[in-house]
Amino acid sequence: MSSRWFGWSVVVCAAATTAGAQAARHSSSRASSARAEAAPRAHEAEAPAIEPSRPSRPEDPQRGGHARLTKEAASRPTAPPSAPAAPAPEPADLAALSEDPQLAHGDRIDGTGVKGMVAFTFDDGPNAETTPHVIEALQKYDVPATFFIVTRRLVGRLAEQNRAMLAKELAAGFTIGSHSVSHTNLKTVSTKAVRREIDQSLRVLSTQADRPIGLFRAPYGAIDARGREQLRKRGLTEVKWSIDSIDWHERDGDRLRQRAIATILRQNGGVVLMHDVKEVTAKSLELLLDDLEAANCQRLAEHKEPVLPVSLHYWLRDNGKPRPVPDEVKQRTLAYRNALPDRCAARPRPAEPPEEPARRTHVAKAHHRHGKR
Predict the structure, then answer these.
(1) Phi/psi of residue 188, each to 5°?
(2) 68-98 pLDDT, tens digit each
(3) Which residues contact 307 (CB under 8 A, 6 or more apart)?
(4) Which pLDDT does position 2 carry in this prediction?
(5) CA 197, 101, 155 angle in degrees (round to 5)?
(6) H runs (alpha helix) in the chain
(7) Which of 89, 233, 288 is nearest to 225 (CA)?
(8) Nearest 5°: phi and psi at 235?
(9) What is the C-alpha separation between 332 and 349, in angstroms, rounded?
(10) Residue 367: its pLDDT value, please?
(11) Strand partners, 322
(12) 349 band by pLDDT with thresholds 50, 70 and 90
């Protein structure tokens, strides 16, 4: 009896020991699992509550992963919306670079509003091969002009030659303005690119010219509210045109000058768009200016006022009111007007038109009607 009881006691103790060990292992496994699950939740609680991060691998919808993420994201506190950042201060250097006392801060120039005067403007340069011919023609006929510079031409491989052309334009007394950095269409690029095209061109051109820049012409004349707002900030006067010579398309120099002079005379002046980088312009400009002088001489002979070639100063307005023209500009215009009669007298006389052939007599016409020769 005691032997049997002892045997059952051993069996019961062994079973209890085995059960206890299994329970301990199960308890330890559950604790480890709880710690492993709690760890990522603690990490998520420490992360900034800006935007729930995307899991590195997709959760199994059958295991409720998506629902658990959504519930946890909803339970996390959200950060209050941050105040909008203050606008960056305007670069201090740009304010001085556009403070041209004569040309900056004006109304948009479109070439209208002035009669009896014409302003020649040239875009896209300088170019060491074509610009010299344009300068020579202007100087020969004592015609002012404005050159709108693409500033990428002043840096890079041909920079030295083109900077020499810019210096020559300035030394000859011509006006210069900005035509952007890279001649891109400002309507088709980002606002950041618009600002860069205007601001960087202003920095480069003002530095190379050693003077403030007051004028800007958009490539293709294409500019929208974003670009005009940037021009307003910089104080740059926008310049367009009223007469397009179409030298960017025309290859025939005779057609170019005939069309241009006809439009100038028909409109009694305006702002002419040309390009000093075009070979057709470099070759035909002298003849166009000669045509203008000849037309002015004809007007004087008919006791009419000529169309005077002038600078853009005469088109400047402030809130619609004409801006006073600088004295030195008026003196140059007056000098051209006073010298015009002598220039006309020195011009070669135009060739006499050929005489018309003698008219046939009435008898000859009658013979012709009756078939007699």
Answers:
(1) -110, 5
(2) 444 454 455 554 555 455 445 556 578 789 9
(3) 116, 117, 118, 264, 265, 268, 269, 292, 295, 296, 299
(4) 43
(5) 30
(6) 2-46, 65-75, 92-97, 131-140, 159-171, 191-209, 225-234, 253-267, 279-301, 327-346, 362-369
(7) 233
(8) 75, 20
(9) 27
(10) 46
(11) 317
(12) confident
Task: Using pLDDT thresholds of 50, 70 and 90, give the confidence band for residue 357.
Answer: low
pLDDT value at residue 272: 98
- Structure tokens given for 127: 């170019």
Domains, in order of start, for the chain: 92-344 (3.20.20.370)
pTM of the model: 0.72
CB 199 within 8 A of CB 186: no
Round to the nearest angstrom and report the end-to-end CA distance of the chain: 171
Torsion angles phi and psi, residue 207, rounded to 5: -70, -45
Asked if pLDDT for residue 34 goes beyond 70, the answer is no
Structure token digits, residue 208: 């190379």
Q: Could you give the angle at the alpha carbon of 260 between the alpha carbons of 257 and 265, nearest 5°?
A: 120
Contact of 289 with 138, CB cutoff 8 Å: yes
